Prior knowledge:
Layout: E1 4-9, E2 29-30, E3 33-34, H1 35-45, E4 50-55, E5 73-78, H2 87-92, H3 95-98, E6 103-107, E7 110-112, H4 114-125, E8 132-138, E9 147-150, E10 156-160, E11 170-178, H5 181-193, H6 201-210, E12 216-220, E13 226-228, H7 232-245
Parallel strand pairs: 1-4, 1-6, 4-5, 8-12
Antiparallel strand pairs: 2-3, 6-11, 7-13, 8-11, 9-10, 9-11
Helix pairs in contact: 5-6
Amino acid sequence: MYNVAVIVAAGLSSRLYPHTLDYPKCLLEINHVSLIERAMQNLEANGIRQCFIVTGYQWKKLSHLSSRKGPLKVSLIHNPFYRTCNNMASLWFAKTYVGDQSFIYLHSDVYCDPKLFKHFVKRSEQENTSLMTLMTDFGPVDEEAMKVKVNENDVLVDCNKTMHLDEANGEWTGIAAIHKPQKVFDEIERCLEGEYLDVYDTFAFTNLAAKKHERIVCLSTDAFNWKEIDTYEDLQDIRRSIETAK
């Protein structure tokens, strides 16, 4: 069972301007509930009791989360380099807080159906000997997707945005469970020391899979609803989708 989660919420969200000029993207609302609150509700419902949120852009607008009521304790970690680095570096800032325990890892701009989140957590617990699990939407992808390539056992071979569409087996949703955090943080640190600052977290994940032969298992979304919010159109799409499903 997982007790800890890390949410990275430091990005500039420039593609959503002007909607995110004055506050972080994770405060955008779907049916009057923000993306970050929905993520925390999912964590809370699945037994997670400590959540570390790595902040950056408009970080003061998230300060109220540390006094959020309920069994989930929230702590904020500030990444002062958010303008020059990407989410891999933001994840690294949680290293000393997480320690050696397994944890759930989330991007803050993702809507995830509560049933899907529960399904993923349960299946990830069954794969706890792997380095990590990635919630993956198998099927056709577009150019913007964080593309995933797997072997016949759904073990990660490659994950990036530049992969040819024909090579991709699906898309990583931005949600994962990390079972061997020390190995992940060590690889991230190695990348950062090599001045790979403005790269995605998947850069480190792929290095671990391809070069160090670590087992990273991709678990299917199984047609449950999820959405990464990159544009205002994405936000409108998920709002309509949820409204239709009522």
